[in-house]
Design a protein that fits this description.
heterodimer; A: 616 residues; Ubiquitin-like (UB roll); 5-stranded mixed sheet; 19 strands; 14% strand; B: alpha+beta; Glutaredoxin; 4-stranded mixed sheet; 46% helix
């Protein structure tokens, strides 16, 4: 790679890339994110290469392994350009037909197209798939065009043009003003205006630092991983622009150890950026020096908290400190430090390129731009979804997400991870932004959105999050450490059928105490999953305590399975599947469950096609 | 489980040198050692402390605070069951139960033969395929009780 020591040299390189006549005309974009890779992306790539060779097309088409496209439910996904042909759930054995029809005959391979489950219509193009069509993918949409391991592919899509604009056409103050006018708010969940942090940091003397929080610890959320793996350069570009605006010469990315591919792709991207002169001394001849280093987290959720993260960066256990002084004044190494989340940094190049006005045209009054959500759980279309702020929960879950699978009923959506809460059906038309979900007692958080159906027990969900938080609490302050333990003891006895009158009130009391007196954000928000489930699903708590029943059939001591003799047609499937041999009955006659042998594993319930297994 | 290992001190030195003996990089140094032996052998602690100029107690406080570090020997195969929220609502608990039954250990324990360690991890980001497990670096998805037991049996067969 050639190092560019001035802007013009880089401009010429980009022009060459964009006007390149030789090289492949077509692009086969194959998702290699973990969700698709577990279905064998690597093997599929090999088969595609063989088929291209067979048809003499190897020179004409590039096979590009990209980061996550977002539609994980249909993985592995493949898109062929020109034409934007979309093939979901690709299998090696279908590749020969797909390649022959699409590339040789120039027609879609109908058998393998995506079928809209709602209309049963076959859809040829990626852009027409309802899952994508209803999104606004201004950040995430580039993933499928970019080879994360090739900086040229980022440059060819207009990458680093915002950096050039920032370094050569704007002053640091103008950059901060642009970010302020765009009203960019922190995507990690706090929603704090980025420009305020940036200008505070800039005002304070000393070596300043910019830090990217890539310690995505919220269980069920993987938006940041999708960006880190698929488009690392957009985060790097954002960081360089931010560092220039703030006047920082060193940056850190604190990334989860559990994301090895993200670490590898980011490491490689940083190396490439350094090699062509976008990091290091005197970037593109602007006189600005800046470099970025990676620090790997150790699997501690609390390190998402700014002071804990900085303690961890310094080589200490990640214990939060009281924030009498903000980290933007005195943070990492006791110096002014500006911490933003992955997605916040990824928004920066977009704002600089397209302007604050364009950016602020998307979203609601106080939350601008788009937000990426990780739509998971009991939903038809699991995946990463990017929509303008203010899109309603219903649009996200039902229009984009395709609703609840297996004709089950929607029960709640959990947003904001362990700091958030569960929102019931009556609020599905709430526009999603920083402020609206807070009003409901939850938070938008970093973007985790876990859909729950009637088979999810809300008391169990609350217990799940408290269990998570007990493990993750750093243990410094009493309200969080002891409050969580006491909550857990109460929730455990409720789920075991030992709940007593007054338990709900006691949970509320402990929760309120924790909200008021915990040291850091982890503790103050920790009771949210309990408090919101009590607020919206109090009857379920009461059923556990008073009737000793778990209506959803999750808490084992509080339910058992029975076979509805009228619905059972004796197909014998459940008896064959039961690992305990607890189900007996003659063929074509109603079956019976031996309660002594049954371990309530639920396999019969999940496998019965006639809804004959009942929760009692 | 008793196990003695020969520590390759040259490799430990290389790891520390890779980070220029920087004490801010202690966590990553411990992670690299952990990767090498599947745990951080306690014999390494005084050496690392000396090279970085930190107290041994500081290293223990780091190793016990961060979950990715183990001070106990672990199995050849680390079975990480994802207990992220998406996997939880799709039945991760049942997967753990199945593994406990088959391996005869609880989470964070290692089988007597040193073959398997059962761990839980909060979200591997493969939520569409939940419930998922990761055995060393290989991810298996769409599991239920019987399929996860088949996978474990495959690993057992391969090992023997």
């Amino acid at each position: 790679m050639v190092k560019f020591d001035n802007k013009e040299a880089l401009d010429r390189h980009i022009q060459e890339l964009q006007s390149k006549k030789e090289g492949p005309e077509g692009l086969i974009s194959l998702c290699a994110g973990p969700g698709c890779s577990i279905h064998g992306t690597d093997d599929i790539r090999g088969v595609i290469a063989d088929e291209l060779k067979k048809h003499g097309l190897s020179e004409k088409y590039e096979i590009r392994l990209t980061g996550c496209h977002g539609f994980c439910e249909q993985g592995p996904v493949m898109v062929i350009d020109p034409g934007g042909f979309f093939y979901p759930r690709v299998k090696s054995e279908n590749i020969p037909e797909i390649i022959e029809k699409t590339l040789v005959n120039n027609e879609p391979a109908e058998k393998y197209l995506y079928k809209d489950p709602a209309t049963k219509e076959l859809i040829v193009k990626e852009a027409d798939v309802p899952f994508y069509k209803r999104q606004t993918r201004s950040i995430f949409g580039n993933n499928r065009l970019i080879d994360p391991n090739n900086i040229d592919s980022y440059l060819a899509t207009g990458g680093y043009s915002a950096l050039k604009k920032a370094l050569f056409e704007m002053t640091p103050e103008e950059i901060i003003a642009e970010v302020k006018n765009a009203n960019l708010r922190g995507r990690g969940g706090g929603g704090f205006p980025a420009a305020i942090k940036w200008s505070t940091c800039r005002k304070h003397e000393g070596p300043r630092y910019v830090i990217c929080n890539a310690d995505e610890g919220d269980p069920g959320a993987y938006m940041d991983r999708g960006l880190l793996e698929g488009n690392p350069h957009c985060i790097i570009e954002g960081l360089i622009i931010g560092a220039f605006a703030i006047g920082a010469n060193e940056g850190y990315v604190y990334v989860r150890h559990e994301y090895p591919l993200a670490v590898a792709n980011l490491q490689r991207a940083l190396g490439h950026a350094r090699e062509i002169g976008l990091l290091g001394q005197n970037i593109l001849g602007s006189g600005f020096d800046f470099d970025i280093y990676i620090s790997k987290g150790g699997g501690a959720f609390v390190c998402g908290e700014s002071t804990a993260l900085m303690a961890s960066l310094e080589g200490n256990p990640g214990r939060p400190k009281a924030k009498y002084i903000h980290t933007s004044e005195k943070g990492f190494r006791d110096s002014p430090s500006n911490l933003n989340n992955v997605e916040t940094w990824a928004n920066v190049p977009l704002i600089i390129n397209k302007g604050a006005q364009w950016y602020a045209s998307m979203g609601t009054d106080h939350s601008k731009g788009t937000k990426i959500f990780s739509l998971v759980g009991k939903v038809v279309n699991t995946g990463l979804v990017e929509v303008p702020m203010g899109t309603t929960l219903r649009e996200i879950i039902f229009d984009i997400g395709g609703g609840i699978p297996k004709k089950k009923k929607f029960k709640a959506v959990q947003t904001g991870g362990p700091s958030g809460g569960c929102i019931p059906e009556e609020f599905l038309d709430t526009p999603v932004d920083f402020d609206e979900l807070t009003k409901l007692g939850s938070i938008m958080g970093s973007g985790g959105m876990i859909v729950m159906d009637e088979g999810t027990c809300m008391v169990d969900v609350a217990r799940y999050f408290i269990d998570f938080l007990i493990e993750e609490s750093c243990g410094q302050c009493n309200p969080c450490r002891e409050g969580l333990k006491q909550m857990m003891a109460i929730l455990n006895r409720i789920c075991e059928g030992e709940g007593k009158a007054g338990d709900i009130e006691l949970l509320e009391e402990i929760g309120t105490m924790m909200q008021k007196f915990s040291l850091c954000g982890l503790g103050t928000s920790a009771p949210n999953p309990v408090l919101t489930t009590i607020l919206y699903f109090r009857d379920e708590y009461e059923a556990h305590i008073r009737d000793k029943k778990c209506p959803a059939g999750v808490c084992k001591p509080l339910f058992h399975y029975e076979i509805d003799e009228e619905a059972c047609n004796g197909c014998t499937l459940c008896a064959k599947k039961c690992p305990q041999g607890a189900i007996s009955g003659e063929k074509k006659k109603p079956h019976r469950i031996d309660q002594e042998k049954c371990i309530k594993c639920g396999i019969c319930y999940d496998s019965c096609k006639f809804d004959a297994i009942m929760i009692r | 489980m008793e196990q003695t290992i020969d520590i390759d001190w040259q490799k430990i030195d290389d790891i520390i040198d890779r980070y220029n003996s920087n004490k801010e990089a202690l966590l990553m140094i411990l992670q690299d050692i952990n990767e090498l032996y599947n745990f951080v052998p306690p014999e390494c602690v005084p050496i690392v402390a000396d090279k970085l100029g930190v107290r041994q107690s500081h290293i223990y406080s780091m190793a016990t605070f961060y979950k990715t570090i183990s001070l106990e020997p672990r199995g050849k195969y680390i079975v990480n069951v994802c207990t992220g929220t998406a996997c939880h609502v799709r039945g991760a608990e049942r997967i753990i139960e199945a593994l406990e039954d088959r391996l005869n250990i609880k989470p964070h324990e290692t089988t007597e033969d040193g073959m398997f360690t059962l761990e839980t991890v909060r979200c591997l980001g493969c939520c569409a395929s939940g419930p998922v497990i990761m055995i060393n670096k290989d991810i298996h998805g769409g599991l239920d009780r019987s399929s996860v037991l088949n996978i474990i049996d495959d690993y057992k067969d391969n090992a023997s």
